């Protein structure tokens, strides 16, 4: 191997090691970052409040204010 290839290999090994350390720190349940709320493991799941979906004809007849109200869940 050439000297530059050896240097690149050393750098890559170092980076992989640091990434593994960071992953173990973030996913450790006793980690201070997890407890403080800076790192969130479980994100909220989006949900739709509207149980009915209008068809294209209904949307075509809506005004922009009605569409805005429907999209923002104020129906």
General description of the model:
This protein has two domains: 43 residues, no CATH class; 32 residues, no CATH class. Helices cover 59% and strands 0% of the residues. The longest helix has 25 residues. It is elongated. The N and C termini lie far apart (68 Å).
Quaternary organisation of the protein chains: single chain
Helix fraction bin: 55-70%
| DSSP strand content | under 5%
**Series of secondary-structure elements, N-terminal to C-terminal:** HHHH
Estimate nothing, just give the exact number of structural domains: 2
Shape: elongated
* Structural classification: mainly alpha
Total helices: the number is 4
Radius of gyration using CA atoms only: 25 Å
Per DSSP E runs of 2 or more residues, the count of β-strands stands at: 0
Biggest sheet descriptor: none
- Unreliable parts: none
Overall pLDDT score: 76
- How far do the termini sit from each other? 68 Å
Question: What's a concise summary of this model?
Answer:
The chain is mostly helical and 75 residues long. The protein has helices at residues 3-27, 32-36, 56-61, 64-71. The chain is built from four helices and no strands.
Q: What does the secondary structure layout of this molecule look like, with pairings?
A:
Elements: H1 3-27, H2 32-36, H3 56-61, H4 64-71
